[in-house]
Amino acid sequence: MLDNEDYVARILRATMSFYRRIGPQMSHFKEMGLTGPQFHVLNWISETGPGKITQLAEMMEVKPSAITVMIDRMEQNKFVVRHHDENDRRVVMVSLTEHGQSVLKEAKLKSFEVIKQYYSRLDPDELESLMKISEKLQNIAGNEDDNNGKCCKS
């Protein structure tokens, strides 16, 4: 019987290996002029609405200057547009353009198709287990904010 650390090590190795091996199949991002982090920014804006540069930096865990460089490139590619907050002109907001929405939709669809190729090889019970475990981990990670960034209360 494996101990908890052995399970974690095996899961990490398998997960990292899986994503490294499918990485080349995710080349559609590059073809669209999009990087992985830009995809996450587009997705976040799509889900939450226009965001402040500072919020985007926090979400990506980078300094505002780093996110500004990324937004510059995304604006050049017409994925996003900057504008000032109506209530506080000092605040710069970032919104998706129609082109950005279109690229995001296409990137999500292509990513889904790549992942689906692998998940379709699992039987329904395995998919059900994977879904429940993934959702449980999502909920645990979601509670990190409630615990000041710490995974689990001690």
Overall description:
This protein has 154 residues and is mostly helical. The chain has a single domain (4-121), classed as Arc Repressor Mutant, subunit A (Orthogonal Bundle), CATH 1.10.10. Helices cover 64% and strands 8% of the residues. It is built from seven helices and three strands. It has helices at residues 4-22, 28-31, 36-48, 53-60, 64-76, 98-119, 124-142; strands at residues 51-52, 80-84, 92-96. Helix 4 (53-60) packs across helix 5.
Summarize the structure.
By secondary structure, the protein is mostly helical. The protein contains seven helices and three strands.
The first-level CATH class is given as Mainly Alpha
How many domains in all?
A: 1
Sheet with the most strands: spatial strand order: 1-3-2
Q: Do you know the CATH topology?
A: Arc Repressor Mutant, subunit A
**How many angstroms separate the termini?**
25 Å
Tell me the overall shape.
globular
List keywords for this structure.
154 residues, three-stranded antiparallel sheet, mainly alpha, DNA binding, MarR family transcriptional regulator
Give a topology summary.
Layout: H1 4-22, H2 28-31, H3 36-48, E1 51-52, H4 53-60, H5 64-76, E2 80-84, E3 92-96, H6 98-119, H7 124-142
Antiparallel strand pairs: 1-3, 2-3
Protein name: MarR family transcriptional regulator
InterPro entries: HTH_MarR-typ, WH-like_DNA-bd_sf, WH_DNA-bd_sf
Pfam family, one: MarR
